[in-house]
């Protein structure tokens, strides 16, 4: 089955700096790659996603890039703010009737 | 997201007891999932159901069973709870007709402690 590896497991940045989280996947047929944010004590929520026919997608301060050849995708957060502090999960999904596979999560701490 | 509810929200039980966690949704989604989250760790898929008659094991199904009573209801059972099943359990839903993006909407979670 699909395997997703996520790095780093923890990331601490100064407010205003950029943060990058990287994920690799194993199934070359995977075609959907979402990112979820989980604030402390809350449920995970989708923040951005990308399909395999697109190389990059942006939404204000967040962006996701996809390299299908290398089978990796990354989340980029610019001008980080304290409210960006959370656990971020990547996921991938092969085509057909198959569920998402989540990465192990990255705990991002933005220092004021 | 109030459209996905879980009961109970917290539960403390003893080793060997049978426990049922329930999930209901009013989103009209056909797909439902149960995940487990251990402290500091990611989301592990226990079971998923793509429609009422379709139940599939996830990566950690041993010790768990599920029932899809209706499109809106998906319950998770621990037949004989053990301490290492202490975790936060999330239910989630998605819509197969969502342009192929399969966005997951999570419930608030059930915190289960097995003594």
Q: How would you summarize the topology of this molecule?
A:
The complex is a heterodimer of chains A (112) and B (115).
Chain A: E1 4-7, E2 10-14, E3 19-25, E4 32-38, E5 45-51, E6 56-59, E7 62-67, E8 72-77, E9 86-92, E10 101-102, E11 106-111
Parallel strand pairs in A: 2-11
Antiparallel strand pairs in A: 1-3, 3-8, 4-5, 4-9, 6-7, 7-8, 9-10, 9-11
Chain B: E1 4-7, E2 10-13, E3 19-25, E4 31-37, E5 43-51, E6 54-57, E7 64-70, E8 73-78, E9 87-94, E10 105-106, E11 110-114
Parallel strand pairs in B: 2-11
Antiparallel strand pairs in B: 1-3, 3-8, 4-5, 4-9, 5-6, 7-8, 9-10, 9-11
List keywords for this structure.
heterodimer, A: 112 residues, mainly beta, 6-stranded mixed beta sheet, 5-stranded antiparallel beta sheet, 11 strands, 0% helix, globular, B: 115 residues, 7-stranded mixed beta sheet
Number of helices of chain A: 0
Of all chain pairs, the largest interface belongs to: A-B, 22 and 24 residues
Please state the overall shape of chain A, judged from the principal axes of the Cα atoms.
globular
Largest sheet of chain B: 7 strands, mixed
Structural class of chain B: mainly beta
Shape of chain B: globular
């Amino acid at each position: 089955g699909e395997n997703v590896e996520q790095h780093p497991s923890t990331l601490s940045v100064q407010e205003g700096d950029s943060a990058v989280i990287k994920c690799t996947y194993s199934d070359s047929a995977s075609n959907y790659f979402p990112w979820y944010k989980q604030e402390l004590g809350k449920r995970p929520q989708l923040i951005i996603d990308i399909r395999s026919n697109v190389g990059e997608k942006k939404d204000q301060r967040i962006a996701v890039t996809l390299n299908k050849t290398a089978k990796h995708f990354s989340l980029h957060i610019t001008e980080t703010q304290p409210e960006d502090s959370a656990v971020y999960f990547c996921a991938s999904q092969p085509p057909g009737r198959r569920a998402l596979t989540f990465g192990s999560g990255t705990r991002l701490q933005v220092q004021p | 997201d109030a459209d996905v509810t879980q009961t109970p929200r917290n539960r403390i039980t003893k080793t060997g007891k049978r426990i049922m966690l329930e999930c209901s949704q009013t989103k009209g989604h056909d797909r439902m999932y149960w995940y487990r989250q251990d402290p500091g760790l990611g989301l592990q898929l226990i079971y998923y159901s793509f429609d009422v008659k379709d139940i599939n094991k996830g990566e950690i199904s041993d010790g768990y069973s599920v029932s899809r009573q209706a499109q809106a209801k998906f319950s998770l059972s621990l037949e004989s709870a053990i301490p290492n099943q202490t975790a936060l359990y999330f239910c989630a839903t998605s819509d197969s007709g969502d342009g192929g993006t399969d966005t997951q909407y999570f419930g608030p979670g059930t915190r289960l402690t097995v003594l």
